[in-house]
Each structure stands twice: as C-alpha cells, then as structure tokens.
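hiii so my PI (J.) wants the whole complex modelled not just the main chain, which honestly fair. so below is everything: two entries, each one labled with what it is. i double checked the lines twice but i was tired so who knows lol
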Amino acid sequence: MTWRHERDLARRALDTARTRGASYADVRFVRRATEAALVKNGRIENVDRGDTAGFGVRAIADGAWGFAASQLATAEEAQRVAALAVEIAKASAITKLADVHLAELAPAVATYETPVKTDPFALAFEERIGLVVAAEEALRAQPGLRTTRARYAIQREEKLFLSTEGADIAQVLTECGGGIAAEATGNGELQIRTYPDGLRFQNAGGWECLSEWDLTMNAPRVAEEAVALLSARTCPQDVRTTVILTGNQLSLQCHESCGHPIELDRALGTEAAFAGTSFLTTEKLGTFRYGSDEINIRIDSTSPRGLGTFGFDDEGVPGSEGWAIKDGTFVGYLMSRETAAALGMASNGTMRADGWSCLPLIRMTNVSVMPGRAGTLDDLIADTDDGILMDTNRSWSIDDRRLNFQFGTEVGWEITKGRRGDMIRNPTYTGVTPEFWGSCDAVCSEGEWVMWGTPNCGKGQPGQAAHTGHGAAPARFRGVRVGVVR
Amino acid sequence: MWGETELRRIAEEALRQADGDSAEAVIVARTGSLTRFANAAIHQNVSALEAGLRVRVVRGTRVATQATDRLDTEGIAAVARSASELAKIVPENPHFGGLPRPRPIAPAPSSFVERTATASALDRAKAVKRICDPAKAQRLRAAGFVATNVQEVAVASTLGTWAYSPETTSEVQVAAIGDAGSAFAHRVSLDFGTLDVSGAAEEAIAKAARAQGPLDLTPGEHEVILEPYAVRDIVAFLGQQLTGLAVEEGRSFVAGRLGQKITGPVTLVDDPFDGDGLARAFDFEGQPSDRIALIEDGIARAVVYDSATAHRTGNRNTGHALFPNAFQPAAAMHLRLEPGTRSREELIRGVRRGVLVTRFWYTRWVHQLRTVVTGMTRDGTFAIEDGEIAYPVKNFRFTQSYHEALAGTRDIGRDLALLLPAESFGIQASSQRVPAIHLASFNFTGATAY
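here's the output for the full assembly
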C-alpha cells in the first residue's frame, strides 16, 4: 500500500487533536486480510475470508487518555474521531490523580516487513486448500475416529502509525499456521491428538511456516494415538513425580506463568479487575528468585518466525531484545511508554492493539525459554529414572496473580528407567509458579528449540486477542503434583 | 446508528452483486464505548464505530463466506464478487443443505433504549466517579468499567429472509481492592438511565471490607453458595454442550441421555423472548429462535441447532445459529436458570458449614464429556458457619464436573441477575439470567496464597 490517502487523513486527525487541546496524539491505520479454511470429516466445513480496515486515534488531553476509532476513511470522519478522542480524554480527566507521563522516544520514520519465503496470498487457492484436504484424508485412514479436522489460517496486516512527535512508520506483518486434529470417543471418553500444536499453531512468515510441518506424513501417527488413548491408563491420581514437558506445552507454561506476570500494567494494578495483577511486583525486579539456574527467559521482538516480531510496536517504539529471567532471577518487564516512565525506564516496545478499533495494550512479544544443555528429548528421557512425559496442551488455568496453575495435556507417557513406556490419558499437573520453575533441572539443547505461537491471547476490556511467540524446548521438572481430575 | 433502511439497502446491494445459486448477507453494526478505571482513576477510555458485512455465497454444495467492513459501493461490490469467485472453486460439501428458507419471526420485546445510545463519555466518567469516590473513602482501590453499547443486527438472503434488531446494553463491573482482599460486583441494563452503578459500588465495597485478611481453609469437598457471577460460568459451560454439534461430535454430557435425569432440580431454558434479558427473536441466519427448555427439573430435554447441523443430523432447526464461524455454529444465546424462592440471605442461613463463592476465574475444560472444569475462585470467598458469613478465606482452585455439582442442588435463589458474557467475534451475541444457588458439594483441589 502507498498509504498516501491514509497519511493525509492521519495528519488531519493529528491537527484536529492538537487544535482541540491534545498534548499528544497518535493515529494508526490498519488493514488486515485473513483467510481460514477448515476441513472436517471429509467435507469443507468452512472457507472464510476477511478484509477489515479502519483507524484509531489516541490522545492525551488535560493529562488523561482518550481513544476513538472508525472504519470510515474520510476527512470528515478523521476530524470527528480525533475530536472525539480528545473529548473522551477530557472526560477521563475528571477522575485523574496525576497527569499521564510518557517515557522519552525518538520518533522514527521507517518501514518494516515480515520476511516471507512463499507469500501465502499469492499461492493458488487450490494449493492452500489441497494441503489440508490431503492431511485430513490421511487422518481418516485410521479406523475408530469420531472427528477429524485440518485447518490453515493466513493473515496479512498492514499498518501506518503517525504521531504528533513526528513518527511515520509503515509495516507489513504476515502470518501463517494451521494443523490437524483427530478425536476418538468411547468408554465414556473423548480423546484428541493434534499436530503440531492444537489447530492453533501459527508463525510470522509465509506458507513455509505450515508446509514445513508435513501434516500429511504425521497424520497416521496422530490418528493412531487418538484411538490408542481410549484404552490407555489413566494418569496416576494426586501424586508427586518428575514431569518432562514437550516444547509446545512448555511454551504455553511460559506464556501463562511468565509472559503474563511480567506485564508491567498488571504489576501496576491497571488490569486488576479483569486480567488480574502479578506476583512479580516492582520491588522484586532484579532480585526475585523466579526459577532455577537453568531458567533463562528472553523478551525478544526480533526473533525469526515469532508472532511477536515486528519493526515497531503500536506506540512507535522499535523492536528490542532483553531478558525477563536471567539464570533464574527476575530482571525484566514488558513495558509501555507510560508504565516504563513510572519506573524511570524506557519502553521496550510491547504495546500492541488487536486491529484498528482497539487501544494498544502491553502484550507479550516473543517471550521464550532459552535452550539449555540437556541434549535431545531422547537424551532427557534416558537421563530420567521415573516420571511422566506430557505433550501438547489440552487445558490451562491460572490464578489472577499468576501463581497457582493447572494444565492438562493431550497425552502422556510413563517414563521408567530412562525409557518411554505406556501411554497415559488425561494427564494433568498443578503447581505454584516460582516453585515449579525452581524445580526445573534440565532444558533440552538448541536442536530441540522451536518458535511456537499463541494466536489467541485474551486481554483487555473490550476484549482483544493478541498473537504472541514463545520459543521453547522440552524441559524436566522434579516433584510435580500430577493427576487431579476426579 | 445506521438504521434499518440503510442496513437493508447495504444487504440488498450485496445480494444483488453476489453471483451464485443463493446468497446471504449478515450485518452487525456497533458503537461500543467503554470507560475503564483502575487505582481509582480512568486509565483507558474508548469508543469505536464498527460495522461488518459478511456475505455467504452458495453454488450447488460449494459454499464460501467473505467479510468486510468497507460498506461503500465499491466495498460491497468487492466482497460480493470475492465470495462469489471463491464459491466457484471451493471443494463441494455434500452435507450442505442449502441456506434456510425464510420463516415468520414472532415479535420479541424491544432491546433498544435511546438514552443508552446517546450516553456520552462524560456520562460514563461521572458514573465511574460514583464508584471511585466511595471506594476511596473506605481506603479501597476501585477498578472495573462502565460501558454503553449500541448494536444493530441484520440478516438478508436471496431466498427472501429479512430480519433486523436494534439493541442497546449498558454495563458496570466493579472490583473493590484492599491491601489484603478484594470483592466484585456486576450490573447490566439495556437502559443506561437505570443501570445500578451505585448498587454495584455498594455491593463491591461492602463485601471488600469483609474480605480483608483471608484465612486458610483446607481444600476438599465443601458445601457452597455460589453467587450469580459464579453460576453464570456453570450455565455458560453447560450451554456450550447443549448444542446439536456437541451431541454429533460425541462431546456432550446429554448425548444419548435426552429424557434422563442429569442434574438436581434445576430448569435451564433458552428464552429469546425474555423481556428482562437481551431479547432477539431470530438467529444469525435470520431464522426464528425457539424458546427451548434444555433441562427441565433436572431432566435433559433438548439441544439447539443451526440450519447446517440440523440438516446433517436430521433434526429440526431451532434457530440458534451464531455469527458464521468454523467451530461453534450454534449456541443458546438467552440462557435463564429458573429462580427458586429463597433470598440470598436465606440461602446462606441454610448452610451450617460451607463456602460462599463470589465468582470464578480462568475456567477451562479438563474433560468435556464429564463437564469437568478447572478454575479459581476470586474477589470474595468466605467461610460460612452456622448460617452466617464467618470470615474470608484464601482462594481455591477447583476441579469439578459442573453438571454433577448441580446434581447436589439444595436450593435456588429467587433473584435473577442479568449478566453479559464477553463478546465473541466482536458481537454481543448473548445474555444470561441466573440466580444464586446452594450446592451440597464442590470439589476444591488446591488453594492459592491470597
């Protein structure tokens, strides 16, 4: 896109905001194109395309925030929306306790584009749908399945950001993902296996992000495991044991119990009524023992393939890399310009909005557990006397300070004397965040590390869904409480 | 507001441009305004005008949908053209039974109130002040939101369907937070003028004052009183399983059990004509929505259907299609758990030793077929002793079959709370009306530190 028309409208909006009394304003134009297809039980269940475009204006007036948005890209509407944002800000000011203060930022004039090998939108539709049709058909070769699914999703988001400070940033972000799922029912059970990670796996990049996973080749194994789970042993009930989590499960464990508590808005109480607060309160920064020495967790919006990879966040702050947890110690938050200023720091660029109609919030970028030295998953199993290997998330829940959690996975395997043994169904584990990460004594090496993605992270009121990245490799935890399903 | 005339014009223009055997246009137009506060001050304050058009084009058994929010002539033509082109090349779906034919839609009570539609940012900010000021006076930090929403839903098809519903909602949520405990209250009204902002503030503040300094209580099976905010969660999860698709996929607890006793003496209905809820007489395919008793005095009676699932499974379409999506085509959108006769205080007096739960948090399926859910209690959990609230307790984790919990229903409150679930697909599709409830047992499987 050239953005010529939108840039003109953005400048009009900024002028209107200034004229109406804004001390700061920014404008984001966003256009998002999507396509998703679901094949189920041998039929095309759904092929859905979307195209959404509009703009949002954020303004500070009388020391308080206002935001307004519209899909009508006209000069009159740009001025109306900017004036409304200022009016809303002035209404906000009747309860303010202090003026909003933003951390300093050098305004950027720049562009960014996700590296893409194969543009998914340029592929013939038949090629896209053909991949999931073939994968779903391969699942159905297995007798005994109740439901089979294969899905792909592609997205391209084009964004233009201008601010009264002089920023002018255009970005193009492309994502692609999908997966397969097999469900079997019987004996009062419903069991599911998926690949590579639910039907929600997604990366930043082109069609290669999905095609490289070879869904069709993996379908027979996935289908067979779903049926086998019906007659598998139930997870041992309410015992403590060693647990090895595969990379995709560890990525969600990291998302829920590290990614969210390091959001500085939560720590400062501004999400208290909904998403909650954080046990990682500000006095703990730099000193709190979050996990064992094996635990190194990175905040990085520059990682290849990460759903949280971009050139600039939605405040115009450049992508960055740093540590959240270093050698087990809590050392870094996800920050906005406003929250960073509260700590006397600079923003590390984590403000992101779910499209044009939403206000940017602090969101995870790529929050990744860095690889360790434990070799391959097979090496780690061989090094484990007794325990359970748990793979691919099925259930997740955590308290509003991000301490007490409970996860379930699709499948488990008993580990006995260094060997993977019988399959286990309905595996669950529960714990308290710092104790759990403190019990980690091994993380697999770089060869096992994968950039996973969570394209459905909910936060905010009105609700927003963010796309976040989480690199992880399998890891081992000692003395974990498992099996709490009555 | 776009108005019925303009939305009909847009829909008909889209259908005229569509190239297929039949076509459908669904429009949801909204202005959502939400004023959010925390630490006793407004920190996020938004208003967004959004209108989306979704066109579904059918060619034989080939079906494609495309959505846009460009509602000018060019945008409407582009979305209709693109959906039509896609419908030529998507593989066939031999199970597709065609778009539903129009049926008469009975009138429902109006869900539109003008003064909600015209509420301003200043109106909402003043409401927030009515919460924050008394909270500050009690040395509590208030957080939450005040929102007003205007929504118009319109459905048209080339088969002759036309349905239109203008709707408003206003809503306040309050968490009152002290140094060692918090409490929550929630109110909903179609009319911003009658939204009980002060009532919500008083409830949260009074409960928060009692919630400070929670004590340890050993997890395990406890008798419970669940406030309506927690009951809403149970109703919502069970509602997900009371659909034709859930039965077809073998994940519903009522599959093969219609006509059988599945809970205690509770009655759960889906009532699109409930004038005290967000009434809407049709679904997102423009079909008339039936009032349906899903569970009647503990006996599983029915599930809800959209047209495609009804056709595929040989059942009658009950008119419960959601906004077109891949995973959840139908839902009960007007759930009501029928009330009992006891006041909240009478329910509590009926418990010798138990737990009062204000609300649940982060609830997720553990085992769908058995309706086992895990989650946390939050914002006001108390021990009950000898029929009175005795002291606050630290929050629990629970892992509990929801329908089995209802098997132990001892009593039901007489007052129904109108509550709104979070929006799905950017739409306020549903509302729920639920009472407080007294259950014989609830399985708390862990506890947290606060």
